[in-house]
Design goal:
By secondary structure, this protein is of the alpha/beta class. Helices cover 36% and strands 24% of the residues. The chain binds glycinamide ribonucleotide. Residues 14, 16-20, 92-93, 113-115, 127-128, 181, 184 line the site of glycinamide ribonucleotide.
C-alpha cells in the first residue's frame, strides 16, 4: 500500500490510562479502521496512554501545561498537530477543554467521547467518575456514552454515536463506569470507522450516516 492510499491520519489526545485509545489501536491493527494512529498527545507526563502508544510504535508526545494559559497551550498543541497532518483528532479521556484556536482549525474533524448520554450530565465539571456519581444521585435508570464532534461549547457538538447501559440496583460510580466504559470502546471504534469510511455528513446539529 502506498503512502497515498494509507487512509486517514489519526491523532489521539489523552490524559489518562487510555483504554479508549487501546480500543482504537486494536481496531486499527485488525484493519477495522481505514486509518492509522500517527501520534498520541498528552498533557500528563505519566499518562499510561503514552506508554500504550510507545508499545505500538506510535509517536508519544507530552506537552507540559505548567505556567501556560489555555490559549498558549493550544497554540503549542496546534503546532504539534500540524506536524502530524491529522485528518481526524480524537479526544479519548482528554481532560482539557479545547479553545477555539484548535476547534476552528479542525471543524468537524475532532471527536470526543463522553461517559453519559448527552445533553444530560455534560459540560464543565462533568468528567470521569463525577459523571457516574451524578447519574446515580439523580436516580437515572439508564446511562451510556456519547461520541460527538467538538465545537466551541463543552460536550455540545453534533452527536455521532450513542450507546446505552442499564443502571442497576446497588450500582456504585465504579460499577456503572465499568459498564459504560465497555460501551465507550464500541462506540468510539464505530464512530472512527464511519468517519474513516467517509460516511458521516454533518448538517447543522445532525450527523447523518450515509451508505
Ligand atoms: C472515559 O470514561 C471517557 O469517557 C472519560 O474519561 C475516561 C477515560 O478513560 N472522558 C471524560 O470524562 C471527558 N469529559 P480511558 O483513559 O481509559 O480511555
Amino acid at each position: 500500500m502506498s503512502a497515498m492510499d494509507e487512509g486517514h491520519r489519526i491523532v489521539v489526545l489523552a490524559s489518562g490510562r487510555g483504554t479508549n485509545l487501546q480500543a482504537l489501536i486494536d481496531a486499527a491493527e485488525r484493519g477495522d479502521i481505514k486509518g492509522r494512529i500517527v501520534a498520541v498527545i498528552s498533557d500528563r507526563k505519566k499518562a499510561f496512554a503514552l506508554e500504550r502508544a510507545k508499545k505500538h510504535g506510535i509517536d508519544a508526545v507530552y506537552i507540559p501545561p505548567k505556567g501556560k494559559t489555555r490559549e498558549e497551550y493550544d497554540r503549542i498543541l496546534l503546532k504539534t498537530l500540524e506536524r502530524y497532518r491529522p485528518t481526524l483528532i480524537v479526544l479519548a479521556g482528554y481532560m482539557r477543554i479545547l479553545t477555539p484556536i484548535v476547534v476552528r482549525a479542525y471543524r468537524n474533524r475532532i471527536m470526543n467521547i463522553h461517559p453519559a448520554l448527552l445533553p444530560s450530565f455534560g459540560g464543565k465539571g462533568y468528567y470521569g467518575e463525577r459523571v457516574h456519581r451524578a447519574v446515580l444521585e439523580y436516580g437515572c435508570k439508564v446511562s451510556g456514552c456519547t461520541v460527538h464532534f467538538v465545537d466551541e461549547e463543552v460536550d455540545h457538538g453534533p452527536i455521532i454515536v450513542q450507546r446505552c447501559v442499564p443502571v442497576l440496583e446497588g450500582d456504585t460510580p465504579e460499577t456503572l463506569a465499568e459498564r459504560v466504559l465497555a460501551e465507550e470502546h464500541r462506540a468510539l471504534v464505530e464512530a472512527v470507522r464511519l468517519f474513516c469510511e467517509g460516511r458521516l455528513r454533518v448538517e447543522g446539529r445532525i450527523v447523518r450516516i450515509v451508505r
